[in-house]
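Example record used in the benchmark description.
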Amino acid sequence: MTKNLLLDANVLINIGYNKANSSALKEIISQYDFIYISSLSLFFAKLQSLQMENNKDYLKEIKIIQSVCTEIDFNSSIFAQADKILSGKDFEDACQVVTAIKYKCDILTSDEGLCDLYSSMIKIVFVPKR
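Model output (structure tokens):
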């Protein structure tokens, strides 16, 4: 059975910034057969680069991650279903969960709130930010 993984936006950002947990995140990614990223996560990761003065290394890391991922379009169907399952105030988390369910993926995240609110719906692999 293949193992599918959806990367939360914070995973991209943490790896892009080379945060303390980036090695652990990369190790988990390497254990999966197929890696997915939603266009919503990619949008947030690239938006983050606009807030940086020197973003070349960050963008280089994002492109490396993007090269091993299959991008999933964010669409109105995901939006509508996320609205139905929304728990808390982070709509992006609900969108990630709906996307992961639809594509039969585990979610990799450093967002403790996402784990707390949605771990009963889908497998969430949590790596703290440290």
